[in-house]
């Protein structure tokens, strides 16, 4: 049992501050969904989201004042908040942002996006309330999540620095790099930069390389690798059908856009997926970030929080699309992260999610190559 969990269980009474905080998020969520309704927005998704936002507010207030069993209220608040997140995400995807101007500055923000974000926060608070996590425990978990999110964002910068370190001497000797050569350098930079970032984190946290979970794959591991790949592609097919049937549009990955102009870069990315992308992304996001989250969260909670971090980090890969399309694509990434996180948690062997991730990317890149080179 970790210290945070022990502290939570030692508390006889859960602080009313936690459902109170949830009520604040739910109130913002309610305002963000009701304002579009009062402005005449004719979207059933927004109307239903507003109704569930009301349910969320009532559930949190009932928990805070003890008029409803805490765990039952938390389940209701969590479920209704998830509905708001899904419906507001759908509304964004359908082009219903409903922006309002910010007084005093030349800017505006989307009410629907505000509902989406606060809905997600309300889900987290509801889960905390269900498990009796007090305000101190919630604060500790938030701090750890923030620190590890920053480490995740460092995983975006470090490969660029690594690529620059490699590219400068190469360009000094051969001149300007071709597109294919640039991709090779970027992949080498990812390995270098991510490796250095992981080494730095292990050093400052007093850990050594034994923290990295690498082992000889067992027969069970091999079965899980095959099962993981099949699960991911099965889920991808189901999500694609769901998106098509509901009119949801997702964004193209930045690499897809580059490959349309230069299909030959995919011949580099197919092997790089298995040798670099899969192993080093899983090293950082599963072996380091998810495993570090175990110190504050249950294993299931760490998989979920780590999945959210992994999805948010990928926003930059889709930033040229609209917010609704980005949200849809990140939902797919989040699903991928849940599968990879579960495989890592079950096996405690980095090789398993690394191979599943690598094979998944390699198949996608190979399919793109045959599509664009035809």
UniProtKB/TrEMBL annotation:
According to the UniProt entry, its GO molecular function terms are:
endopeptidase activity
Kindly indicate whether the keyword Transmembrane helix belongs to this entry: yes
Keywords attached to this entry: Membrane, Transmembrane, Transmembrane helix
GO BP: CAAX-box protein maturation
| Start and end residues of each CAAX prenyl protease 2/Lysostaphin resistance protein A-like domain | 266-363
| Positions of transmembrane segments | 12-32, 44-62, 74-92, 112-138, 150-172, 184-202, 222-245, 265-285, 297-319, 325-343, 350-370
Under what name is this protein listed? Abortive infection protein
- What is the species of this protein? Natrialba taiwanensis DSM 12281
